[in-house]
Task: structure prediction
Amino acid sequence: MHGTGRTWVVRALLAGLVVMSGYLIYEFGRIKAGYDIVDTARDRQAYEDRITLLDDEIVALKQEVALLETHREVDREAYMEVEASLASLQAKIQEQRDEIAFYRGIVSPADGNSGLRVQDLKLTRGKAEREFNLRLVLVQAMQHDRKVTGDVNLSVEGNQDGVQTSYTFSQLIPENADKAWAFSFRYFQDFDRQLVLPDGFTPERIHVEVRSKTRSISSIEESFAWAASQG
Result:
């Protein structure tokens, strides 16, 4: 019994010696080949430190990119706000210029002529396909010592299925609209009227007759090319 125990102990010691010898031979071979376990461990630690440093640099660069993108977005929004403010300012300046030109046309027109005149006529498309909105502005230039009264007569000339045709104002307004078009003012008066064109009719010119009923103020007639904006 004791002999068997000794045999197992001896075998275990021999196995341990074999393993230890193998490891020593393995390390000796690596040392002979120029391998140093201490240097290898040091190099490995250096690589790990370098990887950690690079990871930190990546995080810092990502934060910088995010910051730059935020600044770019802020700059873009600021630019858009400035651009919108500039556009609004330009629109206001143009509006003021138009108002100055309008009142100058009343007080001191460029041609120096006094009396009635059409200051503005504008056509825009209505809701339906054949509907149009007409804006007419009448002014009394230079002489404002009395009111001018009268009425407006309007007609539209164009092509109706290949034939030159003219329609009066009363033929072009909606059924329930007032056919009378009177005016009375000292400086100016503006009107908004709706026109409905007949099917097959292509408008070409619009003729406006402003008939004065005030003594010493003459009636006027003007003709304009038909041009409707999308407004």
User: Anything to note?
Assistant: The chain has a mean pLDDT of 80. The chain has three helices and nine strands.
